[in-house]
Amino acid sequence: MSTAKRTLEMQLLLGPDETVPVAGRFSYRSDRPYEVEVAFVSRGETVATWLFARDLLLGGLREEVGEGDVRVWPARRVTGSRQVHIELATDDSVCELAVRAAELAAWLEQTAAIVPPGHEDRHLDMDAHLARLLAGKC
Fold this sequence. Notes:
The chain has three helices and eight strands; from the N terminus they run E-E-E-E-H-E-E-E-E-H-H. By secondary structure, it is α+β, with helices and mostly antiparallel strands.
C-alpha cells in the first residue's frame, strides 16, 4: 500500500471578510483509490473528518463539481491568487473552506503518481470487497 499525506492550510469562510484558519490533513491510500480523507484540525484538535471522491478535488481545480454533501469549485481572490473552495453540507449545517489551488494541485499530483486517475479499478479488488460485504465482514 502506498500513501500520500499532506497538511494544507485552509480558511473556514465565515463571511465576506471573516475567516478562521483550519489545517486540512489530506490522506490518500492506494488500497482505497477512489477516496480522499481530510481531517480538519483547529487548535491542535481534529474537529471533523470527511471522506469524499478524489475526482471531486481533481475536477474542482477546473470547474464546479459535486452535488449534495460535497461541492468543489475554483475561485480567484481579489489579490489574484487562485483558490479551490470546498463546501461540506450535513442535515444541520453547511460550511465553506478555501485552500490554495497550487498546494492542492501539488498534493493531487502525488496521488496521481501512486494511482493515475482512471486507473483506480486496477488497484481495487472489487471481488474481495464484495465477498466481505456479502459475508457481513465489512
